[in-house]
Sequence to fold (763 residues):
Amino acid sequence: MNLKLSMLTAVAATAALSCALPACADDEVWNNSFRLGAYSVFYHSKADDLSGPYVPAGVNFKAKDLETLYAGYVRRVSSAFDVELALGYPPLSKVEGRGPATLGSVPYNGQTVSSARWLSPTLLVEYKFLSDNSKWRPYIGVGVNYTNFYDRNNTAQGDAASGGPTRLSLTSSIGPAGTVGVGYNVSGHWHLYTSYSISRVNTTITADTAGVIRTTQIKFGPQAWVLSAGYSF
Amino acid sequence: MTKTLKFLGAALLATLAAACGTSTKTSTGSSSITPGTLALDPPFRIASLNAAALGAELGASAAGAELLLVAGAPACGVDFYYIKFWTVGGASEATESSGALMVPTGGAGCSGPRPVLLYAHATNPNQALNIADITDPTNTEGALIAAMFAAQGYIVVAPNYAGYDISTLGYHPFLNAAQQSGEMMNILSAARTALPHTMSAATTDSGQLFVTGYSEGGHVALATQRALQAAGATVTATAPMSGPYALEAFGDAIFYGQVDLESTVFAPLLTTSYQHAYQNVYAAPSDVYSPTYATGIDTLLPSTTPIDTIFSTGLLPETALFSSTTPVIPGQPALTAALAVPSDPTNPDTPLFAAGFGSPYLINNSYRVDYILDAVADPDGAVPMPTAGVPLAATAPTLGLRLDFYTNDLRNGDWAPAVPTLLCGGDRDPTVFFSVNTGTMAAFWSPQVAAGLITVLDVNAAPSGPFAQVQAGFIGSQAAQLAFYQSAEGGNLSLAAAEQQLVEGYHTAVAPFCSLAARSFFSTFVGAQQ
Fold:
């Protein structure tokens, strides 16, 4: 939560500073834009029950929501179309155990059992409504998301539940993505944006604990609300 | 502008750099296959149960509830580790094997320095046996040792045996004293390596070592005691239980016609084991086995196919070890008569022995005759007629299988237990005869028995002495079981049928009571100076 607040503050401050800058011819057209802001990611994860040796029925997972830094590069294609490459600072996504309260006598349900960082760029083609000199420009976009997971770790609690130190591997994901948002021209080079995005991120998780292999498939279903400031040139 | 670009560039570089890193981890595999090497360190923990959860888990089944009545409520939690280690087969082939490391957890008496109990399991036809897997409801022996020993503060170490579970040996070195005692010492070494690296490291090895095992494991336990003693290793006390220790005598008794229960399972395990180790049992399985069963008998057991299916599909006879047609030994009518189907109405064991004859049968008459002629030429001191001191055959037998029995008979090796030893069993055991095995060893080591170093316990004897409660418990449980079989819930069996059921379950029924006696015996040494 603190991270979220600090990022929102940074975005507001960036927008406020922009008012003091001398630039700003409101009706100029810029072809490139960088955006910086904050992601709030809400997972709607659905996982198959974990399968493999020594796993009781009903062992499942849930990804915990998170906030992270958003960065994007936008290239104007025409008055109506942009192409956006959206990146987030790879967030540390935490996974909670869902299912039995305990595995044997080891607490499980609600425990943070593992974490992984996501490198998750999304390439979007966006259609902008209204004209270039409009103060507000709503837009919609579709594209593709690629997600690679790294820094995959079981927590101590996850290791205890798994039966020992565990190596996690997660397959990379490629899936469709969509966004809807609106931009506000603060002044000249500077804009504010807010958007809501959804993408499909599916992975197969393989856990190796001393040669004992367990697997599950998880659909993260991430949805992200973004607030950002953009500088165009 | 420039600052913004620099910041974004730095963020992207950080992102890409981070993506190259990884901090994943799991157990480390050993590159060494030296016997006794822990193959994966730390080992996998199958389950962690506190005392209450273990009690609840065991108490959830009728068999488990009965076990708790004998073993008592768990005093400790238990962490069940599945350890993999390197050992060798019967012909010194390197093989990975596996087993259990059960670590007690909890407060005083459950953690800190605790004694190690090395356990050898009974014959099991299931090749997939994993005695560490407490989650498997068919793993009754794993539950027994967990409840009886680990839950009372002993660090339990128990191999699955080569040829079982992950071992790719392809056969099991059944009743091979050198191999099995070596494997016991190998898993002990691996478990001691593993223990400090487990998630139960608050429990440590006190240095005290107890050795026990049941049935096949009784033989293994005594062989291990001999091997540890020869190696100069510390052994605190041992309790071999219901084991076929006097193998030559036991084999002779069976071939003379005292056929034991489950002998058709033991036979292929034995011949396969000894053929691999010594290559002297047969040129082809059909030298020993009848044509009905010879094909594939050398790879039949242990198996992932349930033993009942093996019987029902005709791969093995359920009880008919020998032919019901008596072999004729020319010029030896008395010996011929001795090989006839047992029919003495005054011997209560006659029905048991007679069930070992039939058609189709497992072992050829010609092979049985060869065996008996060898036994007659060079008799064992215990069978057919006991002689003073019940020594092994005077010279090494000529017939391969009988020589292998001689080699693995635990009277062999010019040794006697040097630490307190409890030999426990039940005198009516139809599977591993008490008198031929425990009785023979007690007679063979009569000086040690007289000196109190070896204690012989028959759980079926009239209650007396330090194990009176165990004896009373066993006798009471047998009476209760007999009544159960005659009740509506137990099938309304006639007395004769109920007694038959009791006989069939006798060997298994002795196990928890002898284990309880072993625990009681060991408890007198826990914490004492070596």
Summary: Chain B is about 40% helix and 15% strand. The mean pLDDT of chain B is 94. Residues 247-408 of chain B form one domain.
